[in-house]
Amino acid sequence: MDFGLSDEQRMVVETVRDFVERELYLHEDEVERLDDVPKELAREIRRKVLDLGFYAANIPEAFGGGGLDHLTFTLLERELGRTAQALALHFGRPSNILCACNEEQRERYLLPSVRGERLDCLAMTEPGAGSDVRSMKTFARRDGGDYVINGTKHFISHADVADYAIVFIATGSEDTPKGPKQRISCFLIDHDTPGFTVRRGYNSVSHRGYHNCILDFDDCRVPAGQMLGEEGKGFELANTWLYATRLTVAAMCVGRARRVLDLSAEWCATRKQFGQTIGKFQGISFKLADMATEIDAADYLTLAAAWKLDQGADANRECAIAKLFASEMLARATDDAVQIFGGMGLMDEMPLARFWRDARVERIWDGTSEIQRHIISRDILRPLES
Ligand SMILES: Cc1cc2nc3c(=O)[nH]c(=O)nc-3n(C[C@H](O)[C@H](O)[C@H](O)COP(=O)(O)OP(=O)(O)OC[C@H]3O[C@@H](n4cnc5c(N)ncnc54)[C@H](O)[C@@H]3O)c2cc1C
Description:
Blueprint: H1 7-24, H2 28-34, H3 39-52, H4 70-80, H5 85-88, H6 103-114, E1 120-123, E2 139-143, E3 146-157, E4 164-176, E5 179-190, E6 196-200, E7 212-223, E8 227-228, H7 234-242, H8 245-270, E9 272-273, E10 276-277, H9 282-310, H10 316-341, H11 352-361, H12 369-381
Parallel strand pairs: 1-4
Antiparallel strand pairs: 2-3, 3-7, 4-5, 5-8, 6-7, 9-10
Helix pairs in contact: 1-4, 4-8, 4-9, 8-9, 8-10, 9-10, 10-11, 10-12
The structure holds flavin-adenine dinucleotide (FAD).
């Protein structure tokens, strides 16, 4: 077992941390206030990351990306987690499901995304189908050489700034031991396709400036060539490419929690009450100790899951464990941090309230904590069931 980082991994961590601290921290308050990332700033961040050579670091070198392995990419995400999600978006990590593009799709979607010319978003969730993905209602009906799509997706992150959407849509149904379930296919749909509209969704307390959107399909006609992968195999495609995104969530939670710990420690060492710094009160300093312990635990779980993925092994259970623990750890850490800061912890003048609000969504998106527990417990029990 080797817990050391390679020279390349150390370089990635140092470069990304430096970029985040120097180029992104200074815009956090503005993004929070505007609930938006100004277009010019978004462009500027993308340009700088391209110059740095870190854009699309998750995509294989064969497609022009950085080709980082899971472990190194997880380290990168950990550093990005220190800053606002809305700013980190423009660091540019196209969805790796785009690697399933055929040659023609590669030219129109994957390669421009790797070059920072086009931005994707990914749409699975619907008002009536959240955790139960296979109950989705959005349907694509075959009509000659086209598909005609009707339905609505909601909660779709940053669809308002994306150029196209990777959309999961039912194209039929099948009987399963759990009753009839939708057969799902995946489509690449450009934002200017007639019958497809994107509108701003709900106002979320988490991650200001990182908008969730509603996608409406009203007799939206797309050629069959817009399908990503095979007909009816969208669920398998998602399972192949997307379960590693849970590691991204875990890594970002670890990065954010480390920043929260740094800020809390600084406050403990400077804020005085009853004639001494509050860090001298054991009730306060022990919170720092618990935070540090849980952050390290989440960090090791996350890196171990990434390492296992790099061995080509099935790491479904490990990714779920990392996401579950890291997101719940962040909730405890941010809550303790607010307590350490006292009243100031709740004020918009401090970043703590933001971290506390932002932490809430991590237990919900990319599969809720309950769904992660399902995945883990199913993996434990399956071998024992006849
Ligand atoms: C800010 C934000 C951004 C998002 N971005 C995207 C995006 O870009 N693309 C996208 O496709 N989706 C996105 N989502 C959707 C997200 O993945 C879903 O919110 C999540 O999967 C949960 O679905 P739901 O909200 O409908 O909750 P539900 O599925 O309705 O769940 C409600 C509650 O019931 C529990 N529950 C449900 N089923 C079970 C079960 N079998 N056992 C035990 N408990 C269960 C859940 O854990 C939860 O506590 C986003 C969500 C948010 C909040």
